Amino acid sequence: MPATQVVMPQLGESVVEGTIVRWLVKPGQAVARDESLVEVATDKANTEVPSPSNGVVTAISAAEGAVVPVGGLLCTLDEAGAAAGAASPNPAAVGPLGTPTAANKPAAPVAAQAASRAAAPAGSAPDASPVARNVAQEHGLDLGRVQGTGPGGRIVKADVLAHIDGGQPVPVAPLASQPPPPQAQPAYAPQMAAPQRTLPPPPAANYGPGPIALTLRAYKPPRYTPKDGDQVVPFDQRRRLIAEHMVYSKATSPHVPCTAEVDMTNLSRLREEWKKAKETGGKAPSFLVGICRATVQALAEFPRLNAVVQDESLIIRKDVNLGVAVETEKGLLVPVVRRANEKSVLGLARAIDDLAARGRTGKVTADELSGGSFTVSNPGLKGNLFGAAIINQPQVGILRMGEIVKRAVVRTVDNQDAIVIRPMMYLTLSYDHRVIDGVTGNGFLHRVRELIEAAQFEL
Question: What pTM does this model have?
């Protein structure tokens, strides 16, 4: 039976690579189908990649800390070895002390493989993190002079800073006469913009003397030297990838925010009725669920918001796959409720609660973090009057909830204007102005507001 190659899965529509956090298996270890093999980090989440079949791990091809593109080889399984491993060991395959013979030894440990990969050919670019490359470029530092202490000898930011603080001379070449080497570009240029751009780069003439990437590199903020009492917190893998995605989204989509003030009175009353329904068991679906339900209904009337931009085309999607932003200890996570347009209020509530709970414990799967067509973000209950969220690429819109606060508002009572106290919330839509015009964006937000204030949802 041929060997099975396990490759880096597609962990989200806008994700082109993943970083190996840790291996959960070793060479020579037998694994069962769906057993977790490796933990991988992306800007979406840390995800465990399952085994596609029963087998024995014969080789691990990516060391911990390595960045592997989608489709890149992670490890190899021998399916035939699973059955052989279950049988008694072959006496000829072990030595007098029970140790494996050379023909039957497992592959070299991951650390040894990492060390061998660290010995790069002469003249090749040193293995360094994108943040380390960016810091080195700011100081005109040749990374070949820096000793790496990361996994497999990788150069990390701390190594670059330690080299600079050591007082060693750092030659700085003039930008005009000697352009920076390719490896010294900002992290978002090689890793995000090039592989994920859905439209051709704009003409250089629109941005002055050169392409936008060069314009971004031209400015360097003054470097701050930490002082006694300061705390330096390096970016971890998740934060670095989130930062790259946010920069890419803002550089790609011209964001336009619009805000509506929503009266939550009727939805509050409806939730009290839901608590009394036997289907809910005394626990009413949250305000977030009600807003998601209104969003799904409005997307049916404004399908242009339920779309992605790709290759100078707008693809309007049939299914509403609703992403719901969830805050976790390791950062923001956006699990996706599939075909949310086919779910009832209770169906939405159960799906959101399940995804949020598993997202916070790291049990959400890669498939559940990809394929979203529109996102609703709820950043929390406290200190959040209103704000505009960044679009989750390649979507074209995101709706952000504000804090629900009791405020004095003017309402018509008995044909007379009166000041009353109502629970109010600001709801902000950020849309991609490349494909969504103001009339469409404002119309969609107004319709969401109407549906929430009417609160005529059925469980």
Answer: 0.59
